[in-house]
Amino acid sequence: MNIYVRDVSKIYGTDEAGVVALDHAHMTVHAGDFISIMGPSGSGKSTLLHIVSGLEAPTSGSVLYGDTDIHAGNDRQLSAFRRRNIGFIFQQFNLLPVLSAQENIVMPLLLDKRQPDEAYLKELTGLLGIEARLSHLPHQLSGGQQQRVAIARALIAKPKIIFADEPTGNLDSKSGSEVMKLLCRIQEATNQTLIVITHDSRIAAMAKRRLVIVDGVLSEVTAQ
Ligand code: ADP
Ligand code: MG
């Protein structure tokens, strides 16, 4: 499924106090693309990812998945669409503190009234090196382990598209690069679409397509 981001702007607030977080962003994402988006703090990276993944509505413009405008339907349709097609990895992991690692991982399926595929759960947690940690609560895990649990949660429903908003931003450089290598390896094996936001140029360089965003203006970095 291709994603067409068409002339998307986002303005927070109104009148003179309004902040233009995103200024006519335009991009086409092809199925299987691995894209990095780099930009300084406050440049609009999270705003872009939230709008493209349906977490937030644009002020103007549209986001099409195939020929479906995801912001045109109601909230219930959008939530169902997101649960079935999109995995999202946050910088702060966003695990539920009272649930075990395994309960966190399978939560997206339960919300969609689906049963986890035990074999896939085993494969995924094995690949991510967290199979011995599944009964632990998030606070009993290191940052790197928590992010690997969050990755498993993002992938368990086999989404076509994975978004990651500075997935290594809260990790030390060693566990950050391990987490990124795992994400890259999974993307290569499954050919899922992966869009990663970072302000680390080494991480940006792992992607096959690179975009930059400055003051809400998005542009593609073309190879020299
Ligand atoms: P980044 O992820 O690149 O650091 P953001 O997309 O979070 O940047 O923010 C872009 C701009 O929009 C910033 O100036 C930020 O202060 C502003 N902004 C983000 N979210 C809100 C909000 N909910 N209300 C008002 N301003 C916001
Ligand atoms: Mg951000």
Oligomer: single chain
- Tally the structural domains: 1
Task: State the shape.
Answer: globular
**What compounds are bound to the protein?**
adenosine-5'-diphosphate, magnesium ion
Please give the share of residues in helix.
25-40%
**Element order, helices and strands?**
EEEHEEHEHHHEHEHEE
Main sheet attributes: strand count, strand direction, barrel closure: 6 strands, mixed
Please report the distance between the alpha carbons of the first and last residues.
Answer: 29 Å
Gyration radius, to the nearest Å?
17 Å
Question: How would you describe the overall organization of this protein?
Answer:
By secondary structure, this protein is α/β, with parallel strands linked by helices. The chain has one domain (3-223): Rossmann fold (3-Layer(aba) Sandwich), CATH 3.40.50.300. It contains 7 helices and 10 strands. Strands 6-7-8-3-9-10 form a 6-stranded mixed β-sheet. Strands 2-1-4-5 form a 4-stranded antiparallel β-sheet, covered by helices on one side. A hairpin with a 2-residue loop joins strand 4 (60-65) and strand 5 (68-69). Helix 3 (101-111) packs parallel to helix 5 (143-155) and helix 5 packs parallel to helix 6 (173-190). The two termini are 29 Å apart. The site of adenosine-5'-diphosphate has 11 residues, from strand 2 and helix 1. Adenosine-5'-diphosphate binds at residues 12, 19, 21, 39, 41-47.
